[in-house]
Design a protein that fits this description.
This protein is an alpha/beta fold. Helices cover about 35% and strands about 20% of the residues. The chain has one domain (about 10-220): Alpha/Beta hydrolase fold, catalytic domain (Rossmann fold, 3-Layer(aba) Sandwich), CATH 3.40.50.1820. β4 and β5 form a beta hairpin. The termini are far apart.
Length: about 220
Amino acid sequence: MSTTALTAVEIQTDPRPTASVIWLHGLGADGYDFVPVVRELENLGAPAARYVFPHAPTRPVTINGGYVMRAWYDIYGNDLVQREDEAGIRQSQRQVEDLIEREVERGTPRSRIVLAGFSQGGAITLQAGLRQREPLAGLLALSTYLPLAAHFAAERAAASAAVPIFMAHGRSDPVIPLARATASRDVLQAADYRLEWHEYEMPHSVCEEEIRHIAGFLKRLLA
């Protein structure tokens, strides 16, 4: 099934980057949302890279009264598990996989590509990143959860077991409860993934301490 190519904001912290970070925004935001983080990561010593911030497609979002906004998939209600937009999730997975292939075609090996995402973007990061037959450098899953968890065991790629995963969540997150995130963490840890877990005193957001930890993670992956 063909997919529409995603447009994206791109920032290079070196004229000839040898690594790529594909970073997916959350519901209702766009690719510009995490652009300011690049300078912060650079100041904290993160390795040079090409940062790719794609814009999610626009679609009606049920939980928001059908309002059309940028979303990686539809959200039917507060329960993120019982009813999931499987078609939307899989479509976004394919679009992100196309972005990964584009980075490979531009000369970045998969072992130097990090897939990152916040909230909905983090869910697609886990959905796509753990199904790659050739492992990526690492995954950053921020304030998120594992989507289509019932399909995970059957669909995950064996090679993905070697991929380091950074998961982080706010203890007072009102959008994706901490319990939902820790349940996803437990599934991944039970499957022997190399998972680094962080909790912060914050709501559904990103904090300075988290950015420092992300910079350290990128240094370990890409130095």
